[in-house]
Amino acid sequence: MINRIIIDNFMAHEHTELELGPGVTILTGSNNTGKSAVVEALRCLATNPARSPNPALYIRHGAKEARVEVEVDDGTRVAWVRTKRWAKYELWAPGAEEPEEYHKLQGKVPEDVARALRLDPVELETRKDLVDVHLGNQRDPVFLLNQPDSVMAEFFAASTESAHLLAMQNVLKMRVRDAKREEKGLEGQVARVAADLDRLAPLPELTLRMDGIEELDRTAARLEQEVPALEAALAEFRALDGRLSRERSAGAALQGVLAPPEVEDVGRLGRHIGSMASVEAQLGRAGRTAGALAELDAPPRAEEAAPLHRLIRELDDTGDILRAALSRRAVMTSLSEPPEPADAGGLAAVVDDLLILRARSARFTRLTEILGGIAEPPAPQPLKRLDEAVSQLGGLEEQFLLKRTELDGLEKDLSAVVAAMDERIKAVGCCPVCGGDLTTDNFLDHGCRHES
After folding, report:
1. pTM listed for this prediction
2. Closest Cα to residue 22, out of 5, 41, 3?
3. Highest-confidence segment of 102-106, 328-332, 446-450
4. In this structure, are residues 199 and 424 in contact, taking their beta carbons and an 8 Å threshold?
């Protein structure tokens, strides 16, 4: 059944579209409004009339060609195009994007078009002329209503067994046509799938590149794991560098300190060191006594004993200095020998120096107590390996950035390929072998597997 009629530049119609509903459609209107032209357009579509009458009569004045198109209930579209010199048919199968064209008709209707329209005239055994049971002229009724009863009886008689045979033959022809059309469509689909598979030829190379990317990713992960250790080493290097700077500053500050006097008699020094314990005990008791006597007035100074008392204190301070010198002797072994001490001069100068050394000894004792809980600084390690590690870290960072840039480019290429694959797989719709669902994800994961 015809659902839609489109007429362009045919006789009086410039452009007309008719939507036909179910059942009977009736065209009404005044004279010369184009009702008969609609019937004539359908007749031209169904019979492809020859050059007589003049085909220019079908073409609207000023146009180059006339066109009549119908759409039937199964979605098939048929168009008849007529110019002054030739005629052609266009046949769209349901869902097809491009029509199949028929040229060089020689006044005939192609079989595919006739099967799609189903408007063929009927041939009777006793009549040479074909009987049109679908279309009628303006003054001739349709379906043999103006013919004798014998003609109608012959028509109905011919439409019994022979009609069934013709119907069966038509069904067979339609099946053959559908099979050929399906075969042609499958061949085209196979060609498209082959083209798509050709486009997927770079996939092995992409797989190799992906393996390289994964290796680079593992290398990058390993480098990222090594970065904290290198950062810790760099932080330790910076701490050691700061501590070394402080030690150098302390060493520069100690350069102005006078060198200790030369130790001439080690035996005397040992004995003096042995007596230092009792002196320290006496100093402790003296300190406690001084604390108890702090509120008392100082005793009168014995002038004749004062130099001796200062000398004893200076000897005590000298003992403290000697003990400190022994503890630092391992550090100062690389130093040159101290110069020959000059003449001490007068006893008063010696006493003044001893007082100064006592004050320094007291400060040194306090510093020793404060620094007693501090561990010895670690020995500075050679900086060559750390410099090599830092330079290697810089090279690794540059290599990591380069690999990261290459990885981003490969990811963009992969995204473009996956997008193209997704577009082509969506166009295919299903697996051409098994007919199953086919998506980009399962195709990339394991392909479309088929059970034997």
Report:
1. 0.36
2. 3
3. 102-106
4. yes
